[in-house]
Amino acid sequence: xxxxxxxxxxxxxxxxxxxxxxxxxxxxxxxxxxxxxxxxxxxxxxxxxxxxxxxxxxxxxxxxxxxxxxxxxxxxxxxxxxxxxxxxxxxxxxxxxxxxxxxxxxxxxxxxxxxxxxxxxxxxxxxxxxxxxxxxxxxxxxxxxxxxxxxxxxxxxxxxxxxxxxxxxxxxxxxxxxxxxxxxxxxxxxxxxxxxxxxxxxxxxxxxxxxxxxxxxxxxxxxxxxxxxxxxxxxxxxxxxxxxxxxxxxxxxxxxxxxxxxxxxxxxxxxxxxxxxxxxxxxxxxxxxxxxxxxxxxxxxxxxxxxxxxxxxxxxxxxxxxxxxxxxxxxxxxxxxxxxxxxxxxxxxxxxxxxxxxxxxxxxxxxxxxxxxxxxxxxxxxxxxxxxxxxxxxxxxxxxxxxxxxxxxxxxxxxxxxxxxxxxxxxxxxxxxxxxxxxxxxxxxxxxxxxxxxxxxxxxxxxxxxxxxxxxxxxxxxxxxxxxxxxxxxxxxxxxxxxxxxxxxxxxxxxxxxxxxxxxxxxxxxxxxxxxxxxxxxxxxxxxxxxxxxxxxxxxxxxxxxxxxxxxxxxxxxxxxxxxxxxxxxxxxxxxxxxxxxxxxxxxxxxxxxxxxxxxxxxxxxxxxxxxxxxxxxxxxxxxxxxxxxxxxxxxxxxxxxxxxxxxxxxxxxxxxxxxxxxxxxxxxxxxxxxxxxxxxx
Length: 698
Prior knowledge:
Residues 182-226 form the PAS domain. The chain is of the alpha+beta class and 698 residues long.
């Protein structure tokens, strides 16, 4: 929950010049900073969702405004990334401390004769304040348009949510700055501390040796760094090794003992120091321990000093862990997002390129269309999942189960990696018996993702001109899919944790293409959600390559074969179709598709023009977008239903908004059907068939 803006000590003071606000703004070092993709992504999204030509993240200084991110601004604003406050609408939002809306600046007395109207052509404006966690207003997220706009509550709610995303990004920047401050504080503390601070690796070699260590033990850092710890007497080597092993397993060791120092005492004996030692393992981001931290204190220090040291150490560790967790959560989400979207995008891109060469080969065009249809369906499913970020970050991915053929999954996965295999010169061998029925009750998209991930791993971790084999069959009532390669393999010491998040065998994969280290984790989780398991087959030697096997519950009986639908090249009845959509690319491609299906098709770029054209053409069916400027699809439907000459026309809402509430609103406005973009050709055929049946009954 955001804290409300702090009240100024002087209620008449201008919030623009409020010292607390300006101090908060400058502490983040965002003004005049380079552009960042995280902010640009939000402004692009705001402009697209609200269908505005420009969107800006603005930071308001005392005498100017700076654009941290801007999309669609005219020159020279886009290059200068700022302007004087005299040309700013955003300063009005900062002064208001809440959302600020302008529907038509030309007639709004609040912005009478504002320079931005004449010089930049800004007519409408919507801005939300951007606050720090403590409540200071830094600037705004705003959208502007060059035409009058009546901002809907849905649009404003979208803009409010995006402004919250900007605040989250700023908070991440603040958190990163705090983490850097803590790192500098740690370094200063280590060097200035009267305690000896030593870090050793698992072989006992010294990695850190501070000034206090030199004072207590006598060796300089130049003498010990990279060498075994010199303070251990020979008779204590075995004991210290046992302590290191225990600490490496997560134990914390403390003792008071005598250790060796450099030089001799007055009696010619090796000099010794009596110290209090604390030892703890240092963990990497993946939880593994590869170093040990020693904190050594002279026993003459008071007990109170010791307790205070431990308290400070625990608090610093807790703060560091908290900051690391925040960063890890963000990175995990971004990694999952990229990983899940990349697989279907690859065959789509290849198919688009291939269409340029296959235009005269109907069979190849048909095959490419099948691939595109499958991958677009997969993308739509992935986007639906990504709408609920919290569900994905917690691993709560719902499966959409159906009876699926393992042969189809294997074939689709092989198509997905064909380009990578060709690029690497690999031989991809598929050993399957199409006559053997292999069916499971599962999620087609997720199981395809599982097999594709294994094939991708095999491609990446196999040297060029390698061999990759995939086979499937039935073993003891289970469907088994095996992926085998002759690549670099996995050393025995790394096999145990190979399915853990972010695991990579870096030292053996110098020639690989890297990766995010989440592919096998996703494979394991998705297979287990299907009631199956994934195994890494043990090989005596890593050089023999790797073999993964997936086992899934097999259906007891072969399902009924779906009826084959013969698709006529020409429709049984030719309909007059009207398409209303303000996005030219969508309207053009959709009209081409409907025309290719054999119907007479027309288009209109806006709702008012669509109504006029409908009255002239009296179409059999109208496909209309919902989110359009000036007049949305709901208003179009209401006016459409008020025209008696269009009573017989079928009205279809075709939109990217597919939530239950969106469907309900479309039906209440007067639409006959609701279709979520992109509409498949099969769905269009069903709609035309329904219209044909309706006309026949009449």
